Amino acid sequence: MSPASPTLLVTGGSRGIGAATARLAAVRGWDVAINYTRDAAAASAVADAVRAAGRRAFVLQADVAVEAEVVAMFAALDREGGLLAGLVNNAGVVDVAARLDGMAAGRIERMFAINVFGSMWCAREAVRRMSTRHGGRGGAIVNLSSVAARLGAPGQYLDYAAAKGAIDTFTLGLAREVATEGIRVNGVRPGIIETDIHASGGQPDRARLMAPQVPMQRAGSADEVAEAIVWLLSDAASYATGTVIDVSGGR
Predict the structure, then answer these.
(1) pTM for the full model?
(2) Does residue 60 lie within any of the structural domains?
(3) How many domains in the chain?
(4) Which of 164, 194, 184 is nearest to 232 (CA)?
(5) Interatomic CA distance for residues 37 and 191, integer angstroms
């Protein structure tokens, strides 16, 4: 296999939407770098699926909330010969349902450190490598937002919704900033999706319980979101930049 095959870096790639995106991207011809924070075994399992599809896989540990770890992760990918052509800013967290007046500063800081700052640092490093302004060959970035950015998530995840609103604005601004440098930047807003992120927010059954509020009367799957992400990365979306696609069952 050519070492010059295009490489996609997926943050938070060991589970949920990130893992589904990594697997699908491999089937569609990408080599894939799987970033994870803690679960090395899960990341390795995704890497095995990428290799089973005939593509190279890189497993990269880094906490995207720490700028130095992000810089080191991209440097490690450079050393391993990954030719970066795509980035999916998928790493993200929620927290337990709460009102703003019940949120500690540490919770809000963590929410923005991972969901916003981490995405911006990863995108910055990707632009430095992909932009024709810096001698790169171009590429595509997809940022994971949420329908919560439109709904506000009152009484539940106001901080998460605000962070994802920032991602929507960041997506539009960066898309326009690098539009003449060979880089497209788009976003995907998932709705209620069956992943284990709900358990981390203390509501493992949230997707099932929320399904009646969705016009399609069901939760979505990580694979359905991955289809939108991988399309936006592909040449089939060559005239799409600065846009955010809702994958939400009509919600």
Answers:
(1) 0.94
(2) yes
(3) 1
(4) 184
(5) 24
Contact 139, 87 (CB under 8 A): yes
| 204: confidence class by pLDDT, cuts 50, 70, 90 | low
CATH number of domain containing 227? 3.40.50.720
pLDDT at residue 2 tops 50: no
Mean pLDDT of 64-69: 98
Alpha carbon separation from 152 to 20, 21, 122, 158 (Å, rounded): 26, 26, 25, 6
Sequence-distant (≥ 6) Cβ neighbours of residue 212 within 8 angstroms: none
Clarify whether 36 is annotated catalytic: no
In a domain, 33, yes or no: yes
Is residue 140 within 8 A of residue 85, CB to CB? The reply is yes
Backbone angles phi, psi at 201, to 5 degrees: -95, 10
Q: Which helix (H) or strand (E) holds 44?
A: helix 40-52
Q: What is the mean pLDDT of residues 142-166?
A: 97
User: Which residues neighbour 8 within 8 Å (Cβ) at sequence distance 6 or greater?
Assistant: 22, 25, 30, 31, 32, 33, 85, 86, 87, 88, 233
Q: Domain span at residue 217?
A: 6-247
Active-site residue among 36, 157, 160, 239? Answer: 160
Q: How far apart are CA 100 and CA 35, in angstroms?
A: 31
Q: List the beta bridge partners of residue 140.
A: 86, 184
Compute and round to an integer the Cα radius of gyration of the chain. Answer: 17
Residue 1 lies in a domain: no
